TrEMBL record, chain A:
One of its GO terms (molecular function) is dolichyl pyrophosphate Man9GlcNAc2 alpha-1,3-glucosyltransferase activity. Its EC number is 2.4.1.-. Residues 1-22 form the signal peptide. This is Alpha-1,3-glucosyltransferase. Belongs to the ALG6/ALG8 glucosyltransferase family. Dolichyl pyrophosphate Man9GlcNAc2 alpha-1,3-glucosyltransferase that operates in the biosynthetic pathway of dolichol-linked oligosaccharides, the glycan precursors employed in protein asparagine (N)-glycosylation. The assembly of dolichol-linked oligosaccharides begins on the cytosolic side of the endoplasmic reticulum membrane and finishes in its lumen. The sequential addition of sugars to dolichol pyrophosphate produces dolichol-linked oligosaccharides containing fourteen sugars, including two GlcNAcs, nine mannoses and three glucoses. It comes from Cyprinus carpio carpio. It catalyses: an alpha-D-Man-(1->2)-alpha-D-Man-(1->2)-alpha-D-Man-(1->3)-[alpha-D-Man-(1->2)-alpha-D-Man-(1->3)-[alpha-D-Man-(1->2)-alpha-D-Man-(1->6)]-alpha-D-Man-(1->6)]-beta-D-Man-(1->4)-beta-D-GlcNAc-(1->4)-alpha-D-GlcNAc-diphospho-di-trans,poly-cis-dolichol + a di-trans,poly-cis-dolichyl beta-D-glucosyl phosphate = an alpha-D-Glc-(1->3)-alpha-D-Man-(1->2)-alpha-D-Man-(1->2)-alpha-D-Man-(1->3)-[alpha-D-Man-(1->2)-alpha-D-Man-(1->3)-[alpha-D-Man-(1->2)-alpha-D-Man-(1->6)]-alpha-D-Man-(1->6)]-beta-D-Man-(1->4)-beta-D-GlcNAc-(1->4)-alpha-D-GlcNAc-diphospho-di-trans,poly-cis-dolichol + a di-trans,poly-cis-dolichyl phosphate + H(+). It is a multi-pass membrane protein. GO terms for cellular component: endoplasmic reticulum membrane. Pathway: Protein modification; protein glycosylation. Coiled coil: none annotated.
TrEMBL record, chain B:
GO terms for biological process: protein N-linked glycosylation. One of its GO terms (cellular component) is endoplasmic reticulum membrane. InterPro entries: Glyco_trans_ALG6/ALG8. It is found in: Endoplasmic reticulum membrane. This is Alpha-1,3-glucosyltransferase. It is a multi-pass membrane protein. Its EC number is 2.4.1.-. It comes from Cyprinus carpio carpio. The keyword Glycosyltransferase applies. It comes from the Eukaryota. The keyword Phosphoprotein does not apply. Pfam families: Alg6_Alg8. Keywords: Endoplasmic reticulum, Glycosyltransferase, Membrane, Transferase, Transmembrane, Transmembrane helix. It is an enzyme of class 2 (transferase).
Amino acid sequence: MENWSLFSLCVLLGLTSRWAVSFHSYSGAGKPPMFGDYEAQRHWQEVTYNLPVHEWYFNTTNNDLNYWGLDYPPLTAYHSLVCAYVAKLLNPEWVELHASRGYESHSHKLFMRATVLFTDILIYIPAVLLYCFYFCDGSSKQKVATALCILLYPGLILIDYGHFQYNSVSLGLALWGILGLGLGWDLFGSLAFTLALNYKQMELYHSLPFFCYLLGKCIKQGLIGRGFFQLAKISLTVLVTFALCWMPFLSDPKQPLQVLHRLFPFGRGLFEDKVANTWCSLNVLIKIKTLLSRETQLFLSFALTLLFILPSSLKLLSKPNLWQFKLALVNSSLAFFLFSFQVHEKSILLAALPVCLVINEIPLIAIWFLLTSTFSMLPLLVKDGLLLPYVVTSLAFLFLSLYLLSALERSTEEELRLGLYRKLTRHWLPKLNLSRIIKWKFWFSLVAMAALSFTSVWLEPPAKFPDLFPVLVSILSFLHFLGFIIYFNLVQLMEPQRKKSQKKTN
Amino acid sequence: MAAPVTNDQSWFFALALGVSFLKCLLINAYHSTDFEVHRNWLALTHSLPAAQWYYEATSEWTLDYPPLFAWFEYGLSHIARFFDKEMLVVQNLNYASPATILFQRLSVIVADVVFFYAVKECCKCLREDKGKYLLGKPSFILTVLLLWNFGLIIVDHIHFQYNGFLFGVLLLSIARHFQNRHFEGALLFSILLNLKHIYLYIAPAYGIYLLRCFCFTQSNADGSLQWRSFSVVRLVTLGTIVLSTFSVSFGPFIALGQLPQASMTGGLVQEFQHSVLPSVSPLATLVCTVLSILPALFRIWHRPNGARGFLRCLVICALGSFMFGWHVHEKAILMAILPLSLLAVESREDARIFLILSITGHYSLFPLLFTTQELPIKILLLLLFTIFSLTSLKTLFRKGGALLNPLEATYLLGLIPLELICEFVYPLTVWQKTFPFLPLMLTSIYCALGVTYAFIRLYISLLTCSDSTKKIKTQ
């Protein structure tokens, strides 16, 4: 069968599963007075359409910031504005100032879901296809299989088409950035990533690897001469893009400050709700939220994050190729997720994207991580009434990706990229069969996740610990993520001279 | 593919599992009144004694399937108890709690296991199964064409029916005839008739084939009938099988004197008076149907072509009754499309007919799902099936030029503007209020062209095919 038909079948399957998930409930459905993220997005359409730009981020009589005030950068606001224009055409009631609060109807849901699908088709899906086409090793069937697995990643589908968000825009733009850098189009890549950053500030998790990769490349080209010019061009691109995005807000110095204040709410504390990172998990044993002062918390979080991203970034700086870049993205986003301030459980998607990109090279670990990331969001999904799609998409992803990528067969120590690590530890632990241990751990972890999913839905928590199951889910996921960050750091830092080079390394 | 090639059957399970996951995702999609129909049947078979099943009329959806299906619903009702007892109360009309929906949808998905088994058996009947790689193997293509059939997914798992299970029995019966296990095939078909009487339309094909190729144990050298080889034993055995199945199914009701009630006249008696065109009576349609399938029956009596000729005749009977029958549902096109898939992976001409019939027939099912929410799903799934069938069959029969001639290709491409007009442009015009059924009429007429064309081509291929394959030496 020809390539184009296989790729199109793959896209159609991805789109079908996305739209089928969208039949289910969304965040805050039927839950006044605050509702959820779905209402937040609708509210932003209302605000951006009806109010002038300089009022969008400010608390005014018409714009109550306590009711889902805008807390994403301007590009999200512009996107909401465009959607609002379409909404006004279809049914003005959807974006009526004040009157449309809490508006819920079947046709409105279809409209909102359609906007997610539209941006997905426009931005994320083409990026995935191009990535698999250009940067996947192996036959064309292997590329299609990889594309299908990436498109069927449950976490992104459930959050975007279930809970309701537009992660496919920011992640898609970041992926275009990675594509650009991989193909050697540095300016295009920087532009795309800057746009991603201006869509969601969480993309900062990815910014250090982008910076180190580009800087490393420029240094390699010679800091005096071509490298310097390249650096200048990139910086100029980034600055101009920022300026263009923020242009309406640059007239008055108070504007950008207020926007930044909304984007980085340090006042909201170390963490909110249950999230699978260090601070929330640590809080179970030691109440650090109340024990330590705000400044100490900030300092601790900053220090630990830096500690975990520095080695990876420095390695990337010294060896700027695509493989290192992808691993650095994983390590950086995981480090931020685990140690940063005010992390939400959905931020795990920022780590999931680069892991999707290594699914062809290290299938077993990548699949394991992707399943864990979906599992870590279980309390959120259950709250949104997305249990059925969660179970179906996770199981489908597990079986299909294990089958299509032969993950269990490709798990020797060499293939797990732990060859060098194994050589070093051979002195202490000669009889260690890493491959078998990892496979056993994989199955054991799957059973644990399935069991915990089952119990957290079926059983009632004891009265003394009403939050028992979300906490258990968070802690289990946290332990997994800790293991993964160590693994990915090992793989990146201990990378030996690869005999088989990537197709397009720069 | 990266899939392990050494394990021959793993791809089958992957495909079956994949489509099952898709079906699970569609649990919350729109469902038609057929959902309430089956819930009502669960309720009345569970709550009432068998003597009252065909009399119960609290709901407008009275039992109008044969008794074996009623027993099937009865069996299901015992599992339904654990999901939601309220669905088994007859008075709970239109009861559709989440547990009810989950149970009913899962029952269709699980019942499809019969279909999976039948498809596996059909793959074994293919004459040759060689292919350079997995995606080019006839068995793989056939499996996808059947397991991922657009019509089945749409009708069973969205609209809501149990066709997968029933077609599984049909395909299994066909497979058994291919494998020369005729008694099993006959038994399975008798069971099928007692599950859903619509399969009566293809009973003539079975009757003629079994009489000609099985009861007459040998043919002459030129393929004509050898009267002296008539085997009474076989005829009697077949008769016993059929009669005993019917008696098991209808027996209890005959004993209770309820046979007239169980005659399932639902829909057969409603006559319409048309305003413009001449009105058609049920008798006229019966005559037309019989006339349309008679040549095919004569052909396989005169010059049988083994099991493949039988299958071709079966498809013609199904298509003939679809085109001329009384009160035919658009879903009945599946009775022609699914068996034709078997022939499509083996012969070039059949592949061509299959493409035209399946794409047109599947498109004609679009009006069944009229909700906006399901619009993307039906378009995506139809594209999925169409692209796969087109490219895989083209690759399979790449020797000998293009599979579809320009006229056929243009006709099929014409479905795209038709869809755009009917579902996107027309609703925005003024005529939507005054002539709301115009898009439906356009769809029906356009698809009728394709179906008729396929019917004619199928007939030509039946009447002109020679006995070039092995001589029929039945056991």
